[in-house]
Structure formats: structure tokens, C-alpha cells
Amino acid sequence: MNSVVLIGRLARDPELSYTPSNQTAVCKFTIAVDRPRRNGEDAGADFIRITVWGRQAETCDRYLSKGRQVAVSGRIQTGSYKNREGVTVYTTDVVADRVEFLGQGQGGNTSNTNTISLEQQTPDMGGFDDLPDTFQAAEDDIPF
Q1: Backbone phi, then psi, for 118, in 5-degree steps?
Q2: What is the 3-state composition of the chain as percent helix, strand, coil, each rounded to the nearest 5?
Q3: CA distance 86 to 82
């Protein structure tokens, strides 16, 4: 099973782009995940690259910024490429299935909130009308 869950802070602002073929949103960012302290030594951190796809990628770009704490769940993906000098570089990234916004940005930045408007959360119900204000159900109309 290839599954990973991380909590960390964004090391820099996210970068949003779109695939040339079908214009799918891709958001990339790096999070710093603290290492546990051992025997009084400095804890340090691991910097892990995250890739998010689709609508969630656009949401991450809109609401995340450097210093913001996030929880990421997804899978590890490895790859490689040849750099300009012809040397093979190996990569390890996390492809996120889910990104949760935690707390506020470092330094108390309150401009980034983890609220999304109700209009964005509620799907279009397509063809359902609101009940009129005068609607009243009789007691025998209720099935329970």
C-alpha cells in the first residue's frame, strides 16, 4: 500500500499551472515537516514537494501561502530526469488526494482563512425549486 499523511507548513507560496492538453489545474508547493528531537539535538525539518490536481489545486492556490499549516494525504511518487549536465536526478513527490488547511499562516496572518463560500461548497441541484413560504406539511404527511 502506498499511502502517506503529513502535517507541515508551506515553505513558499504555491505555484499553479495548467496542463497544455486538457487544461487541468496543477498546483505544486513544498511543505516543511518537523523531525522529532532526539538526545537534545536540533530537530530540523524535511522539505517535501506536494502536487495537487484539479479543482483542489485551484483552491490550494487561492487560499494557501507561505507559512500556512496544512495536512496532506496522498501517495508517494518517484521519478527521474536528466539535468542540463546530463546527470540523472531522482525525485520523490507526494501526489495529494486531500489537502486540509490548518490554523493560520505563520506570523498570525489572518487574511488566509479556511472558509470557502457556501456557493462553492453546494453543488447545483439542477431543477429543484425552493418550497414556497406558505408550505405546511400535515401531520399525516410525515412518514415517521
Answers
A1: -60, -35
A2: 10, 40, 45
A3: 5
**Over the stretch 43-68, which tens digit does the pLDDT of each residue have?**
789 999 999 999 999 999 999 999 99
Encode 119-132: b = buried (16+ Cβ within 10 Å), e = exposed.
eeeeeeeeeeeeee
Element spanning 6, H or E: strand 4-10
Residue listed under C-alpha cell 483542489: 56
Check the CA dihedral 21-25-30-35 and report its sign. Answer: negative
Strands (E), 61-113: 69-82, 88-102
The C-alpha cell at 59 is 483552491
H or E, element range at 41: none
Give the C-alpha separation, 2 to 24, whole Å: 24
Q: Would the pTM count as exceeding 0.70?
A: no
Q: What does the domain layout of the chain look like in residue ranges?
A: 4-106
Structurally, at CATH architecture level, domain 4-106 sits in: Beta Barrel (2.40)
